[in-house]
Amino acid sequence: MKAGARGTGSAATHKGKQGKITKKSGRKTNKKKTENQFIINASQPASDKIFDVSAFEKFLHDKVKVDNRVGNLGDAVQISQTGDGKIEIIAHTKFSGRYIKYLTKKFLKKQQLRDWLRVVSTSQGVYELKFFNVVNDDADEDDE
């Protein structure tokens, strides 16, 4: 009985809402060209010669998905190496910074560097590879 009463009440409410809805075809939709720019700064580990920036760039070219397909970059996504240890990604489609961070972590894990490096977002669209802060825990344990 309660289920039937609930269904009747919600249907009546739904009809009331339906009467107030107007057509959306009269609205103008402004579609902006989305251009996202991401920079991955790996200059610190690259200067220490433990991170290969060109291998990372090739990894991104091979692994980035556009429209759920790998190797479908085309003109939608441009990946280029700029400066010493910096990679710039320009996407003309909807693209997530979290996806860039995910792929960067995946590359670090593949190269067995994940234990020493971390990916930190320093500002919007800028990711930096930093070393973990290693504190001398051994010295603290010896004092005790």
Describe this structure in words.
- The structure is a single chain.
- The chain has 144 residues and is α+β, with helices and mostly antiparallel strands.
- The chain has helices at 2-20, 43-47, 53-63, 97-110, 137-143; strands spanning 36-41, 65-66, 69-70, 77-82, 86-91, 117-123, 126-131.
- The strands form two sheets. A five-stranded mixed beta sheet has the order 4-5-1-7-6. Strands 2-3 form a two-stranded antiparallel sheet.
- Strand 6 (117-123) and strand 7 form a beta hairpin.
Strand order of the largest sheet: 4-5-1-7-6
Strand content: 15-25%
Which stretches are poorly predicted, pLDDT < 50 over at least 5 residues?
10-17
Query: What is the helix content?
Result: 25-40%
- N-to-C CA distance: 71 Å
The SSE string, one letter per element, is HEHHEEEEHEEH
Mean pLDDT: 82
Number of strands: 7
Quick recap:
This protein is α+β, with helices and mostly antiparallel strands and 144 residues long. The protein has 5 helices and 7 strands, in the order αβααββββαββα.
Brief descriptors of the model:
alpha+beta; five-stranded mixed sheet; two-stranded antiparallel ribbon
What topology emerges from the helices and strands here?
Layout: H1 2-20, E1 36-41, H2 43-47, H3 53-63, E2 65-66, E3 69-70, E4 77-82, E5 86-91, H4 97-110, E6 117-123, E7 126-131, H5 137-143
Parallel strand pairs: 1-7
Antiparallel strand pairs: 1-5, 2-3, 4-5, 6-7
